[in-house]
């Protein structure tokens, strides 16, 4: 979904939530998120919120398995969007 690593000049929150409004904790998916200069890979397999400080390299983001609907989004702490692509790790 997001093929290259990038960073922002402001903080950001990424959220991954189960799509059932009666049970948002039921996730039913696996998402890989790469973060940091060392490009460490994290597996998200439960409802999660991720705080990304300003300047931290993050992504690619790879949806490996989606068995049930989920919601993904982000919140930027800035009036406009900015991004600098710097990562080297592809999907």
Note the topology.
Elements: E1 6-7, E2 12-18, E3 29-35, E4 40-44, E5 48-52, E6 58-66, E7 70-76, E8 84-85
Antiparallel strand pairs: 1-8, 2-5, 2-7, 3-4, 3-6
How would you describe this protein?
- This protein has one domain (6-85): Jelly Rolls, CATH 2.60.120.10.
- It contains no helices and 8 strands.
- The chain has strands at residues 6-7, 12-18, 29-35, 40-44, 48-52, 58-66, 70-76, 84-85.
- The strands form 3 sheets. The protein has a 3-stranded antiparallel sheet, with no helix packed on it. It has a 3-stranded antiparallel sheet with strand order 4-3-6, with no helix packed on it. A two-stranded antiparallel sheet has the order 1-8.
- Strand 3 and strand 4 form a beta hairpin.
Relevant CATH superfamily: Jelly Rolls
Mean pLDDT: 90
- Please identify the top-level CATH class: Mainly Beta
Give the end-to-end Cα distance, rounded to a whole number of Å. 9 Å
For this structure, the CATH topology is Jelly Rolls
What string gives the helices and strands in order?
A: EEEEEEEE
Beta percentage is over 45%
- Give the overall shape: globular
Please mark out the parts with pLDDT under 50 across 5 or more consecutive residues, or reply none: none
Q: What is the annotated CATH architecture?
A: Sandwich
Q: How many strands appear in the DSSP assignment?
A: 8
Largest sheet: 3 strands, antiparallel
The structure class reads mainly beta
Total DSSP helices: 0
Helix content: under 10%
Strands side by side in the biggest sheet: 5-2-7
C-alpha Rg (nearest Å): 13 Å
Integer tally of domains: 1
